[in-house]
Amino acid sequence: MVTSPAHRAHDGLIEVMGGRPVPCFEKPERISALERALTETGEYRLLPPTEHGLEPITDVHDPDLVDLLEHVWTDAVASGATNGAAPLIPDTFLVGPMAAGGYGGSGTARPARLGAHCLDTATPIVAGTFAAARAAVDVALTATDLVLAGETLAYGLCRPPGHHAARAMYGGYCFFNNAAIVAGQLARAGARVAILDVDYHHGNGTQQLFWGRCDVLYVSLHADPARAFPYFSGHSDEAGSGAGKGFNHNFPLGVRTGIDGYAAALERACAIVADFDPDAPLVVSLGFDTFERDPIADLALTTDDYARVGSMIAALNRPTVLIQEGGYAIEAIGANAVSFLSGFRSLPR
After folding, report:
1. So which residues are the catalytic ones?
2. 100 located within any domain
3. pLDDT tens digit string along 15-27?
4. CATH of the domain at 31
5. How would you label 214-230 residue by residue, b for 16+ Cβ within 10 Å and e otherwise?
6. What pLDDT, in 10s, does the model give residues 169-185?
7. Total number of domains constituting the chain
8. Distance between CA 270 and CA 288 in Å, rounded?
9. Which of 20, 116, 146, 329 is the most buried (most CB within 10 A)?
């Protein structure tokens, strides 16, 4: 298991939900709970990440987004846009081209440009955000290095999460797309890569990044976007375009879907991965917000159910990199992860 203390500085967060400021559900205690539960089993060791530099990030993300996230906090403090305590949340959005880049606003001050690169009002920036987001990428890439070196499984405890971050856009608690950066590096080396996303929310950023590519398969199980964030992506008819047509698969799920319905969808998703037959480690965007008591979700998996989910993914018999995404029931997230891993490791490999 790979983890970094840098995520703790991404703290003191407020999001705007339903027009009201509330404490952010994405908080440092999530990773602390995972670390504690995993170490208490005595079966897992926590490793620090190694530095991989900015190039893997800029291979996937627009350099303007990277520059903005690196410097916006210090610019905001210097200009008085924040008093140094309040998080930065945009209040004006450049709606049309925000996900693709190419907008006209290079002369606008960085704090005011947030709305040209942000999806929502739920992804605050504080002094430690950029360092935490960079460290999360290093966590993901270090976990990948372990698998490439011969481990059959490695788990990156990434925070902030990543699958909502698109090429030129952050949001959904995500700044850099950790799973996509891993897939991008594997594909850059000539591999065919599969990403299996089992977070409650659709990974709109991951879908966008590989929409036109046939070397990276994206398969996602998630709550139906007719009712669930991010609303504007994740429908079953979204299949990719050009060379990527047929390499994007979405499985929207109904309210209170339990393990039987979830397993049926996962079986179909795993069959698609098996048919694609990737020649790189399987990348899993692993969310535990599918849990029955998650505070911002409405599916119905139990702690015991995650063992079945883990065993089904393990049955693909692929070296696997787990990338932590969501999961906001902090009192249960550790037990859910332990259950998933017990199921995954229960099959001979």
Report:
1. 164
2. no
3. 998 889 999 999 9
4. 3.40.800.20
5. ebbbbbbbbbbbeebbb
6. 999 999 999 999 999 99
7. 1
8. 18
9. 116
